[in-house]
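FAQ: What does the model actually see?

It sees only this:
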Amino acid sequence: MDKALQLVIEMNEWTWNRFKADLSDVTPEEIDWRPLPQANTINAILKHLRVEAEWSLVSLEHGQQSPYQDTASVEQLTKSIPLDFARNLRELDELYTRFIAALRSTTLAALKEQTVLDQVFPGGTPHPAHLLSFRQPLHLALHWGQIRTIRNLYRKTRGEPERYFPENPTFPQ
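And it is asked to produce this:
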């Protein structure tokens, strides 16, 4: 296997496994809690990730034949996914596992030849498929940080110690 592709696969696996581990003990109260009325909940973020995972997987598997090549098709996909944390986490796990398997079964050369319309919203531009293999864990990691922040804020509002790095010397009290 190409070393660059192996590195991307390992990055996807590591990010996904750590993300899942951090959600393994989320409480029902945390799922729909928000620090501000207009803020996202963990539930909403997970639904977004679930939608994006399907979109990215289908793009990787089918390239230009993907049914998600315009705003309307992505909006239809989004509307079809319920706001159901347990279901979306289970489906996200299945989709991410398939995404990694699809990466394992391809080559870097094949990825570079395939172009996907991974960004279909106004102002977006098509991305080469091989960048999709990097974009997926980067996107997951960005929302993972958001979820960790929500979980820390949730605990702080209840007088509990932060869950992540409660005594980090780079963040003095």
